[in-house]
Amino acid sequence: MASEAPFGGDVRTTNLDLALAVIVALGLPSLCAALFQLTGGALASLYVYYALACVALVLWRKGTLDYRRPVRWPWLIFAVGLLVVGAIVVNNWSAYPNMGAAPLGLALTALIWAPLNGAMEQLSWQYLLDAWRNRWPGGWQRRAGLVVGWLLLLTFVALIHILFWTLFLPGKLPSPFWWVDQLLNAALTVVYVLLYYRSRSMWPTFIIHTLVDLQLVLLANYSILPSL
To answer: I need a surface site. Which of 14, 36, 53, 85 has the fewest CB within 10 A?
Structure first.
């Protein structure tokens, strides 16, 4: 029986990964948006995002998707993640217009898209950070790489939501507390990364991210099917 692949968060990266991370972070959101406009739907964009940028790229460069049994379950960080999700639900309560999804569309979006997105997005997000974080073994170069990796990760998360997801996901009603969203999303991003490193598995991150996607679907009564 083949031995389990090494933890992807430890894989030493190369200059190619540095370039790929920049290309993905700065170029993929615009590409997904352009494909959406060109095809009139999100299906082609989601294929490029999930299949190519999240799965194929990560398997090629890391050799693993890290969906393995956690080495340990980081309960404290996981509990913080659940508290952040709860705060997001409270902040979003009555903040979305009712999208009027048909029951079947709502169910399929909640049961298929929410966990699929929760499983996929973190793979590419984490790769952007690790590409720069793991390029150098130590010293000022590793510290600088960590900073650049975080900047690329946060830039990509912002751009993919602004340029792509806003094209068809429900938008919140105007509120003077928009800054609360930014704080909660920033905290959530940190939780995702810490869960991944502490558990050495993608499963805890998957659970938290899926809950975040699920609350959006249910609070907005949203179906992704018409946008495909």
So the answer is: 14
